């Protein structure tokens, strides 16, 4: 039986974390007050009662609505520092963090305001919290690809401090193929590529992400298990899957944690990693996900070490930077 201290000390790397998904109810209320924004909830308890989801879209509705309180560069920096503090407490050593700029620009926040707010906090993450970090901008697949392409050009022009791009939001009906041009442009500029695929969408979307967007990691990817040829491909090429157990349960992709295919995925030789996705919404941070998996599946030191090592190797850190974490 592993203890919380052993889980804490595991050199953990977070590869699937939406910074907006770390916006805790307390911070929502504080920022609402600071910015003079009216929220539809009388208090934190009423807000907390909204955190019951039936699927991805029901979560996204609340996730986007709550972002209304994020207005200034300081708001984005405070949000990011709050996450980094919690990540440090969890024993996270490195985090590659998603942000959704379109979720902010569509409501009138400047691209520079949101990107610089998050990036300014990340620039100090190592010195302030002992957590190294990198920023990945994710595009909303349920909005026009032309909008994403324009933003990609803007990000290049402003020399945004990002290591890569991703694709997220409502998956079904929004296949990766729509974003080929955006990802080609990112690759031309030396950016890494990842995409959410096979969360609610079919294995076909995972194939498209790999073959058309040429991603080096798949976010979620658990529906890949429905396609044995795809599983073989993912194993052979050791393509990392950033799996998010609490997210899958809370968004009803999986009934209960005990039904999660993660142990089977590990046994099959897939390069799976454990991540927290939107921890303020799904019931816990990276340490909580690891602890629950350990309790549910009786994971021992060997399984946990494999999961931790997979994440280090799947990260965009250089081999030199990976070495001390292995
Ligand atoms: C997300 Cl869980 C999930 N899936 C797709 N898009 C997202 N954006 C934030 N969380
Ligand atoms: Zn996600």
TrEMBL record:
Q: Which reaction does it catalyse?
A: adenine + H2O + H(+) = hypoxanthine + NH4(+)
Q: Which Pfam families match?
A: A_deaminase (PF00962)
Q: Which UniProt keywords apply?
A: Hydrolase, Metal-binding, Nucleotide metabolism, Zinc
Where in the sequence is the signal peptide annotated?
A: none
GO cellular component entries: cytosol
The cofactor named in the record is: Zn(2+)
Q: Where is this site: Important for catalytic activity?
A: 220
Q: Binding positions for Zn(2+)?
A: 16, 18, 196, 277
Q: What processes in GO biological process is this protein linked to? A: adenine catabolic process; hypoxanthine salvage; nucleotide metabolic process
| InterPro entries to which the protein is assigned, alphabetical | A_deaminase_dom, ADE, Ado/ade_deaminase, Metal_Hydrolase
Q: What residues make up the catalytic site?
A: 199
Binding, substrate: 278
Residue ranges annotated as transmembrane are none
Q: Where is the Adenosine deaminase domain?
A: 11-326
Q: What is its EC number?
A: 3.5.4.2
According to the record, how does the cofactor bind?
Binds 1 zinc ion per subunit.
Q: Which CDD domains match?
A: ADA (cd01320)
Kindly give the NCBIfam families that the UniProt entry links to this protein.
aden_deam, PRK09358.1-6
Give a short account of what the protein does.
Catalyzes the hydrolytic deamination of adenine to hypoxanthine. Plays an important role in the purine salvage pathway and in nitrogen catabolism.
* Name of the featured protein: Adenine deaminase
- From what organism does this protein derive? Cryobacterium psychrophilum
């Amino acid at each position: 039986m592993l203890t919380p201290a052993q889980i804490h000390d595991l050199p953990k790397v977070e590869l699937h974390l939406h910074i907006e998904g770390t916006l805790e109810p307390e911070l929502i209320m504080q920022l609402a007050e600071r910015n003079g924004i009216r929220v539809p909830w009388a208090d934190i308890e009423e807000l907390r009662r909204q955190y019951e989801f039936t699927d991805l879209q029901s979560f996204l509705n609340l996730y986007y609505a709550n972002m209304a309180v994020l207005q200034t560069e300081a708001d984005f920096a405070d949000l990011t520092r709050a996450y980094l503090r919690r990540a440090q407490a969890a024993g996270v050593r490195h985090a590659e963090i998603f942000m959704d700029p379109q979720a902010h620009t569509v409501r009138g926040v400047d691209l520079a305001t949101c990107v610089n707010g998050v990036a300014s906090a990340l620039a100090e993450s190592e010195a302030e919290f002992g957590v190294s970090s990198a920023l990945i901008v994710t595009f909303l697949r349920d909005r026009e690809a032309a909008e994403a392409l324009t933003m990609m050009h803007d990000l290049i022009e402003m020399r945004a401090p990002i290591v890569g791009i991703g694709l997220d939001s409502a998956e079904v009906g929004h296949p990766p193929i729509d974003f080929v041009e955006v990802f080609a442009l990112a690759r031309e500029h030396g950016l890494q590529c990842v995409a959410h695929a096979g969360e609610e969408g079919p294995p076909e979307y995972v194939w498209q992400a790999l073959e058309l967007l040429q991603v080096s990691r798949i976010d979620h990817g658990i529906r890949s298990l429905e396609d044995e040829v795809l599983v073989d491909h993912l194993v052979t090429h050791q393509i990392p899957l950033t799996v998010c157990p609490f997210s899958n349960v809370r968004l009803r992709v999986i009934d209960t944690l005990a039904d999660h295919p993660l142990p089977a995925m590990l046994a099959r030789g897939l390069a799976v990693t454990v991540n927290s996705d939107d921890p303020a919404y799904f019931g816990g941070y990276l340490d909580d996900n690891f602890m629950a998996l350990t309790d549910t599946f009786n994971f021992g030191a060997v399984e946990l070490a494999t999961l931790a090592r997979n994440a280090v190797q799947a990260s965009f850190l250089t081999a030199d930077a990976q070495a001390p974490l292995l």
